[in-house]
Design brief:
Layout (H helix, E strand, L loop, with lengths): L1 H12 L2 H27 L12 H34 L4 H5 L3 H5 L5 H34 L1 H4 L5 H11 L1 H16 L2 H28 L2 H13 L2 H13 L7 H5 L10 H24 L3
Helix pairs in contact: 1-6, 2-3, 2-6, 3-6, 3-9, 3-10, 6-9, 6-14, 8-12, 9-10, 9-14, 10-11, 10-12
Pfam families: ABC2_membrane_2 (PF12679)
Keywords: Membrane, Transmembrane, Transmembrane helix
GO molecular function: ABC-type transporter activity
Length: 291
């Protein structure tokens, strides 16, 4: 298994898509840092010397700073998700299509070792990437935001949030391996991207439903989370980071990237079991597949 994990790690590391993603991530951080610095310098221009005891000023500051950080983290989640999908959905299917899988199957390896090895290799690298990008966004906010646009977060909040942020690529890799063991790369990629979109659109719909007290919209959001619970991880992550559990104005301060309807601990457990079940099914499907 560890040999396959090392091979999978090196394979994605040397692919052009990973190099391009790294370069574009650096460009994104530079752009995001510039925007944050500009916002910090211009957003409150002309308001004089506002006092931190002014309730209106504090509310405006919290709304703008948390929404700016939320946008950065949402886009970071989007980049990580796409990289996880594109790098793992063809990890088995492409090798079957090109007959490269014959080289691995000719060795005394269990098929489950191949699937688990790819999960460890791909998941490990993507987890490191997700953590690095998350920390980069936080550092940009803290260093470039100044006293007005930086969000006050503690180390405990950051650690709790990053643990859920890092689970997102692991969930995607597990599901991608399932599709890769069942169908072609293109079909698996299309289905997974659609599920990805359903999850996040459903999350937005649920937040709007809670805000407008529309039970139909809330139920649509819940169903989408059960179909593919990726958005639940992001919503729970923002609650941990901004420490807004049971805060009635959290949605107003964070906008659509926050959460007025906090995912429960059961939902996080469901997400973990969902990923584990997808990985188990990937092993079973690959073992039963005639290649």
């Amino acid at each position: 298994m560890w040999t396959i994990a090392r091979l999978a790690f090196k394979e994605i590391l040397y692919k052009k898509i990973f190099l391009i993603t790294i370069l574009m991530s650096i460009a994104f951080l530079v752009f995001y840092g510039t925007a944050t610095q500009f916002a910090a310098g211009k957003m409150f221009e002309g308001v004089g010397n506002p006092g931190m005891n002014d309730p209106y000023f504090l509310l405006r500051k919290n709304m703008l700073s948390t929404q700016l950080l939320g946008v950065g983290l949402y886009f970071a989640s989007f980049i990580t998700g796409l990289l996880a999908i594109l790098s793992s959905v063809g990890s088995i299917a492409s090798e079957i299509e090109s007959r490269q899988i014959d080289t691995l199957l000719a060795r005394p390896l269990h098929r489950r070792s191949i699937v688990l090895g790819k999960f460890v290799g791909l998941g490990g690298l993507l987890t490191v990437y997700a953590c690095a990008l998350f920390i980069g966004i936080i550092l940009v906010n803290q260093l470039m935001g100044g006293p007005y646009m930086s969000v006050e977060v503690t180390l405990q909040q950051v650690l709790k949030a990053i643990s859920l942020f890092a689970l997102q690529p692991l969930l995607l890799v597990g599901v991608a391996l399932l599709f890769s063991s069942m169908m072609t790369t293109i079909n698996g990629g299309i289905i997974l991207i659609i599920l990805y979109g359903i999850s996040f659109i459903g999350g937005f719909v649920e937040q709007i439903g809670v805000l407008t007290e529309n039970d139909s919209l809330v139920n649509i959001g819940i169903v989408s989370s059960l179909i593919f619970p990726l958005d639940s991880l992001f919503r729970k992550m923002t609650i941990f980071l901004f420490d807004t559990a049971d805060d009635p104005i959290s949605f107003a301060s964070q906008g659509l990237f926050g959460s007025i309807s906090a995912p429960s601990s059961f939902m996080i457990l469901y997400t973990i079991l969902y990923g584990a079940a997808a990985l188990w099914l990937a092993i079973r499907k690959f073992e039963a597949r005639d290649v």
